[in-house]
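To: structure desk
From: M.T.
Subject: fold request, one chain
Message: Could you run this one when you get a chance? Sequence is below, nothing fancy, just the single chain.
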Amino acid sequence: MVNYLILSGAVAAAALLIAVVGVSLNAAAQQGADNSQSPAFVYKLDRKYYNYENGVFHVRAGGGSAISPMTWYFPRVAEINVGDTVEWSNPTLVGEPHTITFALAEGSFVASESAFLIANDTQVTPANPAENADPVIIPGQNGTNIIIGANNRSLSPTVVGADGKVTYLPPNASYNMTGGEKYINSGWMWPKDQVPPGLAPINTFSVTFEKAGTYNYLCEFHPWMTGQVIVK
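Reply: Done. Structure tokens follow.
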């Protein structure tokens, strides 16, 4: 379990570095791309990528290239009927990750990395013996140490039900939302064929909505990247 946590932390750190680079590129692009993500431009793309047929509403999570990656959902609002499905995909031309995250209860939003307790006599070694590395270990209380590891509820497709029960879904999951869930997450969703080694090949996520209402979601990597599903 400890080796798994350390390996997960290493994988998460590598993936987060990619994400940070993507965010930096995106910020630069927004400054010099002639308002390519202005409200008017985004509105045009909302209309361009509108695709709702046979009970399935398709949403693009991000888009663009390394020169100008776009951190928006297209369309940003999906109006559907009860029993219909929203399917998200990541069409970006570079390895820019996004998530589809419904934090439906107070305090349910998660971080990509979290602190975990381990016994202070636990021997922690690099998963790759040839790697020049040591983990950061913080002394805890009551015979424990604190170590930082990847948060699987961010990394993987996850549902936290109304009763607090946690369920992990397979990559590219399809989930039926009853409306009482506390948290629903797609996992780290990458462009097809651009998934970093060691991470699950997640490119799509689908939710079928069984209850009328308004459901807001966002991307864990880009919190300004928000979307909404209106179910009638």
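Reply (cont.): Helices lie at 2-32, 39-48, 152-155. Let me know if you need anything else for the meeting.
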